[in-house]
Write a structure and sequence with these properties.
This protein has 16 helices and 37 strands. The protein has a 6-stranded mixed β-sheet with strand order 3-2-1-4-11-12, sandwiched between helices. The protein is α+β, with helices and mostly antiparallel strands. Among the domains are: about 5-75 and about 220-260, Nucleotidyltransferase, domain 5, CATH 3.30.420; about 75-220, 3-Layer(aba) Sandwich (Rossmann fold); about 485-600, 2-Layer Sandwich (Dna Ligase, domain 1), CATH 3.30.1490; about 630-680, no CATH class. InterPro entries: ACX-like_C (IPR049517), ATPase_NBD (IPR043129), Hydant_A_N (IPR008040), Hydantoinase_A (IPR002821), Oxoprolinase-like (IPR045079). GO terms for molecular function: 5-oxoprolinase (ATP-hydrolyzing) activity. This is Hydantoinase/oxoprolinase family protein.
Length: about 675
C-alpha cells in the first residue's frame, strides 16, 4: 500500500493532495495552472510535491484527476470536426430542438448553433419502431455514401443517432462496424451507448457533443498518459465524472461528455464526506475559484443527482451532481454596463494574465484585487510561492473609484457586495425555490476564494454556522481521493404502475444488475467493494417530465424482488411532495426509465488524515490593517492555520492564513478548531 494522489485542475490553480494509504500522512501542493497545456501543470506539480516531501513516485498506487479539458473545449468551441449520421428526415433535429428561447425576454439572443453544420449531417434509410422492432433494414448503400462524404470532409469524429436506438441499437452498431472498417482513424459515438434513453433531441445533442469532444480528450489523455507513465509507472489513473464517481482513462476517451462537471463534482463529494465526519447533515456548499462559483445543496448527508443539465448552452441528459455555477470568482472583472451600472463578472482575468495584483499584465479591477485592497486576502499565496502587489491592485481600482466618486476601499467593498449578492441569489435558487430554508443548513465555503466571501453570504441568508475544511482551496483534490469508481446504466421502458407491472419491473432491474456485475468484472472490482443503487424515473401519467426516485441500495445484487407496487408508488408520492409540495393519490403513475448506479470502493482505509500542527502555539504571527463592514480599518491579528491547536477558539477580528486560502474572521464571530482540523465558525448576527 502506497500513496494516493488527487489532482484538480482549475482555471487559475492546479491543486494536489497526497495521502499515504497506511500511515495517513498527508501533503498538499498548489501551483498555477497552464491553460495552454493542462497536463504540464500536473506533471510539474507531481515532481514538485515529490521533491518537497520526499515522496517516491514509484510508490504511488493511484492518481485521481479532475479536469476541465472537455468543458473548456465546449465553451470555446474548439472540438473536433464532426459528422452526424441519422435517419432520413431527421437531419435538422439538432437545429429544431425544442423551439424554446434561451432567455424568454431576450428576443435577440439565439440558441447555440449546432456543433455539426448541415452539410455534414448525413442521412441513411432504415427504421426501428417505437417497440424496438425493425420496420425497414438499414440501407448500407446510403451508409457507404455517407462514409465517402466523411472521407472528403476530413472529419475526425462521427455521431450516430438513429430514432428509437435506445430500444434497439442494432442499426447503430452496423453503421459503427462499417465506418470503422473504412475510416479507422475516425472516432465514433453511438447514441445507444452515450445516452440510451428516450427524448431524441437530448439524446442527439449529448451524442454529438461527445463526438465533438473525443478528439480533444484523446489528445489530452495521450499527452498526460505518456508523462504519467514515466513519473508514476505503478499507479492506476482515473478521471472524475460529473456524477461524482471515477472512471478509467479508457472510459474517459469513449465518453468525454461525462467529465463536463468533473472538478465541481469532486468538491461536492468531499463536502459530503466532511458533512458526515462533522455530523452536519444539511450543508450548502460555496466553492469559489478564480473564474466561477459552484453551489450545491447537501441534504441528509447526500448530494442530489440531476438528469437535466445545461452545459455551455447545450442540454445534457446525463447523471450529474446537481451543481449551479455562476461567473463569480477571484478573477471576475468589475465593469460598467451601458446603463452605467457597475457589474462584476462573468468575464474573468483567469490565470493569464490574472488579476492586476498578480503582476502578470492584468490591468482591470477584479474581486481578488478588491480583497487585497481591503486586507482580507493575504499578500503572499502558496506560502510565499506567489506575491501579490497591492499597489497594482489599487492602480486598477483608481478609474472605477474616480468614476463613482468614492475612496478606493469603498469601491473595493462595493465590488465585494455585488459578487456576494450574485452568490446569494444563486443559493436561493437551489434552496428557497426548491422548498429548502437556508437557515436549516450549514454553509461550507471552499475553493481558494470561498472563505473570503462566506460570512456576508451566510449573514444575508440567515445561516448561523459555517464549516471551513482543513484545506479549503484543495478540497476538490481531496474529493478525488474519497470518490468511488462509478458507472451508470439506464433502460427506457414506459411501465404503468399497476399490479401487473411487477414482472416487468423486476425483470428490467435484474437485467440492469447483470450489466453492472459485468462492468465490475471488467474493472476488476472485488465483490467486497461493490455496491448498487436502483432508482426509477417516475411521473403521473400525462406529465411531461419525471422525477428520479431512489428505491433500493445495497452491497449485493441478490436482493429481494419487489413484491408490490404500492411501495414504489408511495416513494414517488414522497418525492413529489418534497419537490412540489403535493401529490394526487388517485392519479395513475408510470415508470419511464430504470437506472442502476454501480459503485466500486477505491479506498479501504476510511480514517481521515489528521491535521499536521506545527510549532507556534496558536499565537498570531503578525498584524495588519483590514477593512471589514463599517468603512473603517481594524488592526487585525494574523494567524497561520497550521499552528492552531485542536480545540483552540478565536474571536474575530482575525485573519487565518494557509497554503491554499485566506479565512477572514469578522468582528464578533467565533472559530473553533475541531479534531479533524476544520474551522467551525459561529456567525454573529
Amino acid at each position: 500500500m502506497g500513496w494516493i494522489i488527487g489532482v484538480d485542475v482549475g482555471g487559475t490553480f492546479t491543486d494536489f493532495q497526497a495521502i499515504h494509504s497506511e500511515t495517513r500522512e498527508m501533503h498538499l501542493g498548489k501551483r498555477p495552472s497552464t491553460p495552454e497545456d493542462p497536463s504540464r501543470a500536473i506533471l510539474d506539480g507531481l515532481q514538485e510535491i515529490a521533491a518537497e516531501f520526499d515522496i517516491d513516485l514509484a510508490e504511488v498506487d493511484r492518481l485521481s484527476h479532475g479536469t476541465t479539458v472537455a468543458t473548456n473545449a465546449l465553451i470555446q468551441r474548439r472540438g473536433g470536426e464532426v459528422a452526424l449520421i441519422t435517419n432520413a428526415g431527421f437531419r435538422d433535429l439538432l437545429e429544431i430542438g425544442r423551439q424554446t428561447r434561451p432567455h424568454m425576454y431576450d428576443t435577440h439572443l439565439d440558441a447555440e448553433a449546432p456543433l455539426v453544420g448541415r452539410e455534414r449531417r448525413l442521412t441513411v434509410g432504415g427504421r426501428i419502431l417505437a417497440d424496438g422492432s425493425e420496420f425497414a433494414p438499414l440501407d448500407m448503400d446510403a451508409v457507404d455514401a455517407a462514409i465517402e462524404k466523411m472521407r472528403e470532409a476530413g472529419v475526425e469524429a462521427c455521431a450516430v443517432c438513429l430514432i428509437f436506438s435506445f430500444l434497439n441499437g442494432d442499426h447503430e452498431s452496423q453503421i459503427r462496424d462499417r465506418v470503422q472498417a473504412a475510416l479507422p482513424d475516425v472516432s465514433l459515438s453511438l447514441s445507444s451507448e452515450v445516452q440510451p434513453e428516450f427524448r431524441e433531441f437530448e439524446r442527439f445533442t449529448a451524442t454529438t457533443i461527445n463526438a465533438y469532444l473525443r478528439p480533444v480528450m484523446d489528445a489530452y489523455i495521450d499527452q498526460l498518459g505518456a508523462g504519467l507513465a514515466d513519473l508514476i509507472p505503478n499507479a492506476r489513473i482515473s478521471i472524475n465524472q460529473s456524477n461524482g464517481g471515477l472512471m478509467s482513462l479508457g472510459m474517459a476517451r469513449s465518453f468525454p461528455i461525462r467529465t463536463a462537471l468533473s472538478g465541481p463534482a469532486a468538491g461536492v463529494v468531499a463536502a459530503v464526506d466532511t458533512s458526515k465526519l462533522t455530523k452536519r447533515a444539511n450543508v450548502i456548499t460555496l466553492d469559489v475559484g478564480g473564474t466561477s462559483a459552484d453551489l450545491a445543496l447537501i441534504r441528509d448527508t447526500a448530494a442530489k443527482l440531476t438528469y437535466e443539465s445545461d452545459v455551455a448552452g447545450f442540454p445534457i441528459r446525463l447523471p450529474m451532481v446537481d451543481v449551479s455555477t455562476i461567473g463569480a470568482g477571484g478573477g471576475s472583472i468589475a465593469w460598467f454596463d451601458r446603463d452605467g451600472l457597475l457589474k462584476v463578472g462573468p468575464q474573468s482575468a483567469g490565470a493569464v494574465p490574472g488579476p492586476a495584483c498578480y503582476a502578470r499584465g492584468g490591468t482591470e479591477p477584479t474581486v481578488s484585487d478588491a480583497n487585497l485592497i481591503l486586507g482580507r486576502l493575504s499578500p503572499t499565496l502558496i506560502e510565499g510561492g506567489m506575491t501579490l502587489d497591492v499597489d497594482l491592485a489599487r492602480r486598477a481600482f483608481e478609474p472605477l473609484a474616480e468614476r463613482l466618486g468614492i475612496p478606493i476601499e469603498e469601491a473595493a467593498q462595493g465590488v465585494i457586495d455585488i459578487v456576494v449578492a450574485n452568490m446569494v441569489r444563486a443559493i436561493r435558487t437551489i434552496s428557497v425555490e426548491r422548498g429548502h430554508d437556508p437557515r436549516d443548513f450549514v454553509l461550507m465555503p471552499f475553493g481558494g476564494a470561498g472563505p473570503l466571501h462566506a460570512r456576508p453570504v451566510a449573514l444575508e441568508l440567515g445561516i448561523t454556522e459555517m464549516i471551513v475544511p482543513g484545506a479549503p482551496g484543495i478540497l476538490c483534490a481531496e474529493g478525488l481521493l474519497v470518490s468511488d469508481l462509478k458507472e451508470s446504466f439506464v433502460q427506457s421502458h414506459r411501465t404503468d404502475l399497476a399490479d401487473g407491472a411487477l414482472e416487468r419491473i423486476n425483470a428490467t432491474a435484474a437485467d440492469l444488475m447483470k450489466q453492472a456485475e459485468d462492468w465490475f468484472g471488467t474493472e476488476g472490482i472485488s465483490e467486497a467493494d461493490r455496491s448498487y443503487e436502483l432508482s426509477l424515473d417516475m411521473r403521473f401519467v400525462g406529465q411531461n417530465f419525471e422525477l428520479n426516485v431512489p428505491v433500493w441500495s445495497g452491497p449485493t445484487p441478490e436482493r429481494t424482488a419487489f413484491t408490490d407496487v404500492d411501495t414504489l408508488r408511495q416513494a414517488f408520492f414522497d418525492e413529489h411532495d418534497t419537490v412540489y409540495g403535493f401529490h394526487n393519490a388517485e392519479a395513475p403513475v408510470e415508470i419511464v426509465n430504470y437506472r442502476i448506479s454501480a459503485n466500486g470502493r477505491q479506498s479501504r482505509n476510511e480514517a481521515a488524515a489528521k491535521p499536521q500542527i506545527e510549532a507556534g502555539g496558536g499565537e498570531p504571527s503578525s498584524t495588519r490593517q483590514v477593512w471589514f463592514e463599517g468603512g473603517e480599518s481594524v488592526e487585525t491579528p494574523v494567524y497561520t492555520r497550521k499552528t492552531l491547536d485542536i480545540g483552540q477558539t478565536l474571536t474575530g477580528p482575525a485573519i487565518i492564513e494557509q497554503l491554499d486560502a485566506t479565512v477572514p474572521l469578522h468582528p464578533g464571530d467565533r472559530a473553533t478548531v475541531d479534531p479533524l482540523g476544520n474551522l467551525l465558525i459561529e456567525v454573529k448576527k
